Amino acid sequence: MRKPTADLAPREPVADALGRLDAGWLEGAQRCPSPNFDARPVDTEVKLIVVHAISLPPDEFGGPGVEQLFTNTLDPAAHPYYAAINHLRVSAHFFIRRDGSLLQFVPTDARAWHAGISCWRERERCNDFSIGIELEGCDTQPFAPVQYTRLAALLRVLCAAYPVEAITGHSDIAPGRKTDPGPCFDWTCLRPALGLPNVACGPAPATV
Ligand SMILES: [Zn+2]
């Protein structure tokens, strides 16, 4: 059941509201557990964070479609597009809405099913060693400034907890197959907010 909208409003300052990771769950995120995950391979460290964009229905914001997709509760009759995707068993670790509210579906220590067939620095199966963050967005509308603020705060927590080497887009690890986070995602907005000069951040080839 969703909380009232007022409870989802981002608290200020955003960075302080996120808290710490507790057994892979972020204190400042609304928990929305997904069954779509499994264990990472033994002795596999998190080296990569993958930025995605999604909106359900496509190009519409604010509805429950993304949470429903990631929890296998999407109603195929609710929208014509849903009949083609409701069979998917997918997830991401996090989802950042247009208002900056943050949801978590899978603990960060587990393997979420977000990247699919993918390759980063000649290493395949990026789900094994990555954390996936979905932003509510599409290819034609700018992301909200608060989404960058929230994303940067989340990335700082994750990069402090894991030996992350790079942050890149889904389209960069699955070129030709995926286009998200898409042309409206502005890496130049993210880098200064991030403040992590030793983590590569941007489209491949990722630059520090
Ligand atoms: Zn994606």
Please name the CATH architecture. Answer: 3-Layer(aba) Sandwich
Find the CATH superfamily: Peptidoglycan recognition protein-like
CATH topology: Lysozyme-like
**Main beta-sheet annotation:** 7 strands, mixed
Tell how many strands the DSSP assignment holds. 13
- If helices are DSSP runs of H or I spanning 4 or more residues, what is the number of helices? 6
**How many structural domains?**
1
CATH C-level label: Alpha Beta
CA(first)-CA(last) distance = 41 Å
Order of helices and strands: HHEEEEEHEEEEEEHEHHE
Structure in words:
The chain is of the alpha/beta class and 208 residues long. It has a single domain, classed as Peptidoglycan recognition protein-like (Lysozyme-like, 3-Layer(aba) Sandwich), CATH 3.40.80.10. The protein is built from six helices and 13 strands. The protein has helices spanning 5-8, 14-17, 65-70, 145-161, 170-173, 187-194, and strands at 21-22, 25-26, 30-31, 37-39, 48-54, 94-96, 102-104, 110-112, 119-120, 123-124, 130-136, 166-169, 200-201. Residues 1-16 have low confidence and may be disordered. The structure holds zinc ion. The site of zinc ion (ZN) has 4 residues, from loops.
